[in-house]
Design brief:
Layout lengths: L5 H12 L11 E5 L4 H12 L3 E3 L2 E6 L2 E10 L5 E2 L1 H7 L3 H23 L11 E5 L7 H11 L5 E8 L2 H7 L5 E6 L19 H12 L3
Parallel strand pairs: 1-2, 1-6, 6-7, 7-8
Antiparallel strand pairs: 3-4, 4-5
Helix pairs in contact: 1-2, 2-7, 4-7
Length: about 220
């Protein structure tokens, strides 16, 4: 399955979430986007469910020789979460990655301040939380975000993504109550291959989505 763009993917996910039996589980939902790519997907879901929208910021920790190759991630105040198999394969240690993790922590704080503009995080305690991204390749960034989210005591956590690798689906399983994924291609390769338009989402697009979500609809 290929998607035209992130918004079309979000509408398809919203349709799936509103079907039984998923619909019965969506009591008092909150939608949290993993920015930046998850923001337009999550916006479509939040509109369809008439649910509040916020962000759940996490940062990938890339390999020294290839920043796009995620070997770990961090979110909130939690320590970095590393993909132990990737570290072993690449002969890397957390100590070697500490400087990069510190850089990503600084960027995480910058983005949280930029996106929220002083607003507190959404109250998710005892609510159904739908965490949304545009796709999962390794799942390490989503895992870090989901672990951080659990500290805020949601009643139920659903991870909703248009496309994910079978390996990522297995990796995030222990962190969630339910995974809603429209397609799990194998071989997977990369998230962008499953979109016709996979243009980079800018910071201002994320802030625009959040600002619009606060206005009456």
């Amino acid at each position: 399955m290929r998607f035209r763009d992130r918004r079309q993917a979000g509408r398809k996910l919203a349709e799936r979430l509103r079907e039984p039996p998923e619909a019965e589980r969506l009591r008092n939902p909150v939608v949290l986007a993993l920015p930046r790519g998850g923001a337009p997907v999550a916006d479509e879901i939040a509109q369809a469910l008439h649910a509040p929208l916020d962000v759940l910021v996490a940062r990938k920790i890339g390999a020294p020789f290839n920043p796009e190759l995620g070997v770990g991630a961090l979110a909130g105040d939690d320590p970095p979460l590393y993909d132990e198999r990737a570290l072993a394969t690449l002969d890397l240690t957390p100590a070697q990655l500490a400087p990069r993790a510190l850089e990503e922590r600084t960027e995480l704080r910058r983005r949280e301040q930029l996106y929220r503009r002083g607003r507190p995080p959404a109250d998710v305690r005892d609510r159904t939380v739908i965490v949304v991204d545009d796709g999962l390749a390794t799942g390490v960034t989503a895992r870090a975000a989901l672990r951080s989210l659990r500290h805020r005591r949601p009643a139920r956590v659903i991870l909703a993504v248009p496309v994910c690798s079978p390996e990522a689906a297995a990796a995030v399983g222990p962190e969630i109550d339910e995974l809603v994924c429209l397609d799990r291609p194998d071989p997977f390769q990369a998230v962008g291959l499953w979109y016709e338009d996979f243009a980079r989402v800018r910071d201002d697009e994320v802030t625009d989505v959040l600002r619009a979500s606060l206005a009456p609809r």
